[in-house]
Amino acid sequence: MNKVGFFKSIQFKMVLIYTLLILLAMQLIGVYFSDRVKTITLDSFEKSLESQSQLISWNVGEAIREARDTNVDDPNHVTDQIQNQLMELDNNIREVEVIDENTVIVAADEKHEDVVGKRTTNRLIIQNLSSNVTNKYRRTDHKSGERVDIVTTPIKVDNQHYGILYVEKSFESVYAQLQQINQILASATIFALLVTAVLGFFLARTITRPLVQMQRQVLAVSQGNFTRKVQMTEPDEIGQLATSFNNMTMKLREANATTESERRKLKSVLTYMTDGVIATDRKGNVILMNNRAEQLLGVYRHDVTGNSILDLLKIRKEHKIMDLYELTDSIVLDFSTDDETILLRANFSVVKKDNGITNGLIAVIHDVTEQEQVDMERREFVANVSHELRTPLTTMKSYLEALQDGAVEDAALATKFLGVTQRETERMIRLVNDLLQLSRLDSRDYKIHLERTEYVEFCQSIMDRFEMSKKQNIEFVRYFPRGSFYVNVDRDKLTQVIDNILSNAIKYSPEGGTITFRITRRGRNIRTMISDQGVGIPKENLPKIFNRFYRVDRARSRKLGGTGLGLAIAKEMIEAQGGEIWAESDWNRGTTIHFVLPLDRRDN
Amino acid sequence: MHREVFKSILLGALVLASVTMTFNILFYKSDFENYNPNSTKRVAIAQARNIPEVIRPNLMLEHNSNGEFGQNSTNQIQRVYTLLRQSIFRESTNYTIGQGTNNNPHYTLVFPAPLTIDALSKVFSFDDNDKSLTRSKLLIDRVEVFSSPNGRNVNAVFYSPDERSKLYTTVDHLNMNNLKGLYVDTNLHPYDRQALNGKIVYLPDNKTYMYSEISYYQRLSLEEFIPILFTDPDNVFPSRGKTEYTDSERQMERTNNVIQFVNPGITSSSGQKQDPIIGSIEWMNNFKIWTDNYIYQGVSLKNSRGDGTATFRMTLGNYMVFNTETYPNWYLSLIELSWKSGELSNYRGTLLDLNPVGGQGRIALDSGKEILDQLSSNTNVQVKKIEDLTIGYELKNPTSDSDQSISATPDWFYKIGGRWYSVTSALMNARGINSGKETPS
């Protein structure tokens, strides 16, 4: 967390607020104070001038009265007496004039003596000439720009109106004083602001210091350090905040521990669960996937994080993200390759926020390859059984219908037809017996009676039996090792296996062909190889020949009376006796069935 | 120290500082030089006068079947005046009081100038319950007392100067025999009733013999009036060679021996209502400005709020003193006070404090009728315009500072347009050196 700059800090803001408030207050005070001082000063100035003017007016009136009483016939004497009254006046008075009722200027101050005897055109004088009260005006001299106060006072001589006294005095001295007062006020304001700023700076620290501590605490908490505590200095609001913050930190620590524990649990579950889990954001982009999902999908999470789940699951053509939000059923994904069949089942659930808004998807992926294969095999098995059973039944039905239709009258034909029916019946019995045997093998509902058997001798006896009962022109070639090799086997079941393999070899061997029976020792095992010179099995079909009802050439096999279960039973029996069986074949060159059995290493 | 305690102390100090500074701002006082707040200035110039000493009649008359007889002796008049002042006057609506043609004599006291009812109430006792009297706007300058035709009651009629407006009263607590006795003891002279412009006057029907009065005088200093006329004497500055003093609002000046004060800046109209006559006397008494004997000599009312002018004239012996020189020398024997909104707006008066030493040179003055005839026939004076006519002393403005004596010369004086003129001067102007005065005998 970056340190807060001074100009962005609360301390600075508080100082700023203090000073702005003081400035505002001082401005309000200043405006009111200046206005009042200005009003009072100007009014006082004007009142003073009014009094002065009234005194001059009275003096002028008295002078005229005295002059008239003394020298009635001498108008110059009157003027002189008036003029005397206008001498020695205040220096700040700009102009004083005495105007009689004829608007003639009777007397004026020393500076304006030249206007004496002239008729005035001053509008203020003319309009107030007959006034009996003192009038005041505030004007600006349009030439000099000087602000002046003008007072016109009626002059009365023995209670008779004589004229008016015009007095003009400059306001500039007053405004100079007001300016000085304003400057003092401004200086006081600046001083007050400085003092306020300094005091505010230190006072604000008392508030911001706990906040800084809390900021550090927040920083520590964000870094996972829950051990620090804010020191509560005072029981005020900030102190209570500090207490609450400490409580919150403690609860946060507990919650964090709980969350961490839960997170570990969840991580463990996700890591070790057999299903793959993929989490996406609201747009369907992958944000999380567990190891199992990586394994199932064959990707690395770093490579696909951020990619769309549609691409990851390869369902973009079939679905859109919105479809997944509304999907209630699971979907099966085919991730099979040329070498491997992989079928996955994906279930989607929607993640929602507290307010109900969709926040993402959780996809749970389950490997259903085996289950699907089992299902497929079961379906195939049922179909095969049904097919294998229906074929002889259909044949038998056909012959029996033929007999019913009259063939029974023909003895030869009837015998032939009954023979076929009998063979088909026998084949069905074999088929059912094989199925029962396989069923017992599958359910382990059988008993193996292992017997210590000298294996070569055992095989010699089987080969001898086949040599004697063979009907085709087939040569049996034996490659048996010398010596005795003992194995623990169920002789009946092993006999059944070898019979089955040899029967197949005989069936598929061409006329004059050779069936090779080879026994070799391989370490602790003994290996048996039975080869024919038949058409062989295509390489791609080799792994399937041990499947139930699997036939490379179904028509030929059925014609030869096979049930399609022989190798499957053989495989089950070999493996039940601890051995292993497999096949090798070259097309048109024959097939070799190998199986190995563990030797009994006890003393011979 | 705990942080909280420190903060509390700091904030408390700031609050105290704030309160102190606010107190200083509100009650700021400059650190000026110490002064004595109990310093006083003497404002008593001479002495105070009782109202009846100033508002007093200057003529007592008796009307009987033989005519008008009178006396202007101050002592005699004061005795009658005192007797009447002890009586109680009750207004009566019986207008037949004054119309009696009985042979009972009527006794009259005449004041030199008309009085307001308020002023009259100060010298006579009126029934307190009679509120209508105080509302009367009559101006009274004479009171006539007589017995009712049946002799049981004493009645009095107050007259305006022209005797047209009358206030009828009955008089209690007055023994008519005592009043008669006072008149019997007085040497009464025949008087002649003359109707002037707006005033009925009673003038001596015979020659009047008087002496010129010689008096030493003392000129009052103008500065003595500063603490009286200015509210802030320390803020009064002299000008024009200390003949003028002003505090920028008020002005006081001396012209010859006359003081003139003006306060033109009175604008407030909320002043306390007061009668200008009584107000003037009380103001003069407050400052003890009565240097000599003065008599109430007139009032000019401007409005009902008490704005107006009251004048008091100097008296020597039984007569008033006049100055008929140019303005403002009239005020050599006159004190004039103008009131506006309860404040003194003008004061004009003498600066002379007379100290009479005796009379010399007996002078005989013609009868009043003769004077009127002379003025009518020998001068341009329009007799019909004469508002008042009386005998008095002419006091000239002393021009020499070396001579501290002054002479008051007996003369007839007439009043036109509110201004008094010397009959002698009028006759001299008209006829050279002739005058209404006879040579001293």
UniProtKB/TrEMBL annotation, chain A:
<dbReference type="InterPro" id="IPR005467">
    <property type="entry name" value="His_kinase_dom"/>
</dbReference>
<dbReference type="InterPro" id="IPR003660">
    <property type="entry name" value="HAMP_dom"/>
</dbReference>
<keyword id="KW-0808">Transferase</keyword>
<protein>
    <recommendedName>
        <fullName>histidine kinase</fullName>
        <ecNumber>2.7.13.3</ecNumber>
    </recommendedName>
</protein>
<dbReference type="Pfam" id="PF00512">
    <property type="entry name" value="HisKA"/>
</dbReference>
<dbReference type="InterPro" id="IPR003594">
    <property type="entry name" value="HATPase_dom"/>
</dbReference>
<dbReference type="InterPro" id="IPR049814">
    <property type="entry name" value="Resp_reg_WalK"/>
</dbReference>
<dbReference type="Pfam" id="PF23846">
    <property type="entry name" value="Cache_WalK"/>
</dbReference>
<dbReference type="InterPro" id="IPR004358">
    <property type="entry name" value="Sig_transdc_His_kin-like_C"/>
</dbReference>
<dbReference type="InterPro" id="IPR035965">
    <property type="entry name" value="PAS-like_dom_sf"/>
</dbReference>
<feature type="domain" description="PAC">
    <location>
        <begin position="326"/>
        <end position="380"/>
    </location>
</feature>
<dbReference type="Pfam" id="PF02518">
    <property type="entry name" value="HATPase_c"/>
</dbReference>
<keyword id="KW-0067">ATP-binding</keyword>
<keyword id="KW-0902">Two-component regulatory system</keyword>
<keyword id="KW-0597">Phosphoprotein</keyword>
<keyword id="KW-0547">Nucleotide-binding</keyword>
<keyword id="KW-0472">Membrane</keyword>
<feature type="domain" description="PAS">
    <location>
        <begin position="262"/>
        <end position="313"/>
    </location>
</feature>
<dbReference type="InterPro" id="IPR057640">
    <property type="entry name" value="Cache_WalK"/>
</dbReference>
<feature type="domain" description="HAMP">
    <location>
        <begin position="205"/>
        <end position="257"/>
    </location>
</feature>
<keyword id="KW-0812">Transmembrane</keyword>
<dbReference type="InterPro" id="IPR050351">
    <property type="entry name" value="BphY/WalK/GraS-like"/>
</dbReference>
UniProtKB/TrEMBL annotation, chain B:
<dbReference type="InterPro" id="IPR042274">
    <property type="entry name" value="YycH/YycI_2"/>
</dbReference>
<feature type="transmembrane region" description="Helical">
    <location>
        <begin position="9"/>
        <end position="28"/>
    </location>
</feature>
<keyword id="KW-1133">Transmembrane helix</keyword>
<feature type="domain" description="Regulatory protein YycH">
    <location>
        <begin position="4"/>
        <end position="436"/>
    </location>
</feature>
<keyword id="KW-0812">Transmembrane</keyword>
<keyword id="KW-0472">Membrane</keyword>
<dbReference type="InterPro" id="IPR009996">
    <property type="entry name" value="YycH"/>
</dbReference>
<dbReference type="Pfam" id="PF07435">
    <property type="entry name" value="YycH"/>
</dbReference>
<protein>
    <submittedName>
        <fullName>YycH family regulatory protein</fullName>
    </submittedName>
</protein>
